Amino acid sequence: MSIYIYTSEGLAIQTVTLSLFRFASLPTQLWALAQMGLLRPALSRVPGIGFWKLCGAGTGEGFTPLPDRRVMGILATWPDLPTAERATAEAAPFRRLGRRAAESWTVFLSPVASRGRWSGTAPFQPGAQDTHDAPLAVLTRATLHWRHLLGFWSHAPMISRAIGAHPDVLFKIGIGEVPWLQQVTFSIWPDAPGMTDFARGDGPHRRAIAAVRAGDWFREELYARFHVLGTRGTWPGAGRVPRLGRPDLPQPTPSKDPC
After folding, report:
1. Contacts of 114 (CB under 8 A, 6+ apart)
2. Residue ranges of the domains in the chain?
3. Into which CATH architecture does domain 15-230 fall?
4. CA-to-CA distance for 173 and 238, rounded, in angstroms?
């Protein structure tokens, strides 16, 4: 049975999804690259979809300046969890990518807090109650000033390695809309105290944040926290993240056809 989240007034709470697709062969990778442009009209017509972004990913630890052509992602908002579940399983753009992908994975999220802007809007609508004992996802997004690209990317790989080496982190990935300029970090933690200890501890993350504040590196930025409602599919390194309790929905079947 799915977990449906409501406010005290009985209104459904917004659900956010991050869907990742991995393409194994060069032909499917080139096909996926073309979809970054071709899928946009179809995504905008998916029933129930709100704010959405098509993203690529970084190589290695994930948040690096070198893109990983094997990975493509869709971040989207939905009015409620049932709509998000069904659309990410059945809507044409998601099924189209899933059929060509060697592996796919979607994480379902409920916004707890959000500040800042993304493409001039505030896309996430916090409504879930903040708790300390549930898995927590953290998303940071920024558009960099051209003049600060070198300074930012001199810090980013160090931050990424620190997050990846942290014993509490359940999952992390670096994604982005425009290579080098528009970047997103996404990580999942077992609870709020573990994430807070990392963020506030004396390490590369805290020093980088101090440098950002002092240097005005970003033209636009956003920070958001979410409860993790569950996941569907498989992905390297995501085995410790709880799965969504609704396995009966149709799953995209990976194609063996490389093109």
Report:
1. 122, 123, 124, 125, 126, 222, 223, 224, 225
2. 15-230
3. 2-Layer Sandwich (3.30)
4. 10
Residues 6+ apart with CB under 8 A from 208: 155, 156, 158, 159
Evaluate whether 2 touches 82 at the Cβ level (below 8 Å).
yes
Residue 38, C-beta contacts closer than 8 angstroms, at least 6 positions apart: none
Q: Alpha carbon of 50 to those of 44, 78, 92: distances in Å?
A: 8, 6, 16
CA distance between the termini of the chain: 37
Task: Indicate the residue type of 31.
Answer: W
Pair 102, 20: CB distance under 8 Å: no
Determine how β-strand 103-116 pairs with β-strand 182-189: unpaired
The DSSP output letter for 20 is: E
74 exposure class (CB count in 10 Å sphere: 0-12, 13-18, 19+): buried
The string of pLDDT tens digits covering residues 48-61 is: 999 999 998 876 55
Measure the CA dihedral 29/239/232/49, to 10°: -70
CB atoms inside a 10 Å sphere around CB 95: 15
Stated pTM of the model = 0.80
- Report residue 40 as tokens: 């946009």
Task: List, for residues 187-241, the tens digit of each pLDDT value.
Answer: 898 887 767 766 665 554 555 555 555 555 666 788 999 999 999 999 988 887 8
Q: 49: which 2 tokens?
A: 């979809």
Nearest to 183 by CA among 84, 89, 53: 53
